[in-house]
Amino acid sequence: MGARLPAVGGRVPGQTLALIGWTPEGYVARKLGLAAFGAAFLPMLTSTLTITGVAVPVTIPVVGSVALAVVLFFVVDLIVRDHAEEARAQMRRALCSYLDLVSLRRDASEGPTVALERAAALGEGWVFRRIRDALVAARLAGEPPWEGLRRLAADTGVGELTDVADIAAVAAHEGASIAPTLRARAQALRTQLLAEEEAAANTASEKLTAPVALLSIAFLLLFLYPALARLTAT
What we know:
Blueprint: E1 3-5, E2 10-12, H1 14-20, H2 24-51, H3 59-107, H4 112-122, H5 126-140, H6 145-156, H7 160-174, H8 179-233
Antiparallel strand pairs: 1-2
């Protein structure tokens, strides 16, 4: 849950900050620091222009500094959102490998609990570390490992972890063979991630179309300007 901060009158996205490795204090410091920079930048620029002899109306630095401070204050939220989306994407990509590892452990006739823990121990990187920590926390609490995965899914917003937990729970309670299911889920997740990356690439390409078109028009006008100027003069 987010923590209330009366000092800034806002709500700190605690789980999102934990996902990207920021502390609430660092989050607030960044927001206040950027807001202070925005509030001071235009007055400092105006003072410099005044010294050089350029007259600037008083309303411009006053209104501009307030607007810039507000914009920069909320820019931090956009940065947090973008970092969190990238972190979740990394978790989903690593989860594909984790599913494959768990399925291999199950093929070796290991139980669901052992397979989940040993597969997590084989991986490297911060995602596997988070999975290991969740499994250890569940074991210390006397809970099955899939409960730790469910909590990790709730904390990070990666719902695919809940799918893994449900599959493992079914195997533990019913003794079902889950290796094919895990491999199929990993393949489906890879297909989903590939589709999302292709969609993001297409969106980025479309965003570049308008600037490129405007630049082409500008070059065309620049190229045709001498001829149009002579034609107008005659």
